[in-house]
Amino acid sequence: MAMNRRLIPFLLMFVSVSCNARQPIEVGNVEWGRNLDAALAASMASGKPIFALFQEVPGCAGCRQFGLDVLSNPLLVEAIETEFTPLLIHNNKGGADAEVLRRFGEPAWNYQVVRFLDGEARDIIPRRDQVWDTHGIAQRMIETLSKVTRPVPAYLRLLAAEQSPRLKQAVFSMPCFWTGEMSLGQIDGVITTEAGFAGGREVTLVRYDPEVVSLADLTAFAETKDCQHTVTVSAYHSAPDSDQKKQISGTVLEKLGMSAAQLTKVNAWLRVDQQKALSFLSPKQRDIVK
Prior knowledge:
3-stranded mixed sheet; 12 helices
C-alpha cells in the first residue's frame, strides 16, 4: 500500500529529530549545556558548581571509552545532572568552543579534562589532568561539593568507594551467610559483601577500605557476630544468586538496579533501619520506590 504523502514530511522530521537527539559517544549520557555564560548564570542562581568537560568530539579510542564507561555510569550521570551544572566544551572545534579554550588556557585536541568552576568561572579545586576513571571523577566531585559546603550524596560516596583501587578482601566463616552479609555490611568501611562457600562452610566475602577499617577491627567485630574464623580467599567460591542479599529478596528494591555497594548497604540496614537503608539510594531510585 502506498504511504500517505502527507505523512512523509512528518516522518522525515521525526527521523531528523531522533538522529539529532543522539549524543556523541565521547560525552556519555549526561544532558550537557553548551553555553558558558548560561552555565555561569545557572551556577550563580543555584549555587551548584559547574562540571566543565573539555572533550575531543569526535575523539580517539580513549575519549570514546571515557564516554562509554565513566560518563555512562547511571549514578555518576545522575550526580552530575543533579548536584552540578553540566557544561561541555569541544576542544577540537572553532567558534565559541575555541574561545572558551583560550579563556581557560586549555590545549586543543587534548584528552578529556574535567574542571569544577564556580559562578565566576574560577576553579573550585585545582585543575588536574589524566583523571580518566569513575573513582577519580567521583572523588573530585566529592571534593568540590565539600569545598563549597554543599551536601555530598551517600550514593556518590559509595560509588567512589566501590571504584577505589585500594580495597582489600577478607572472607569470614559465618553460621549463616545471609546474616553475615547483613551484619558485616553495616560496618563503616565495608564496601561490598557476598555470600559464598569455603571448605564446605558458609562464608561472607567482604571488600573493605583499609583506610577506614582495619582488618583487625573488622575481625574483632565479626567475632561478636559468631564469626568462627577467617578463611583464605583462594578457597572461596560464591553462592548462587538466590542466596545473595537475602534481606532485599521479595521487596520492590530487588529490581531497582543498584550498584554492588548500594546493594550491600541497603541489604545490611533494611531490616534494622529502613530510613538509613533508603538514604543510600539516588533521588531517581527513591522516586521509583515511592
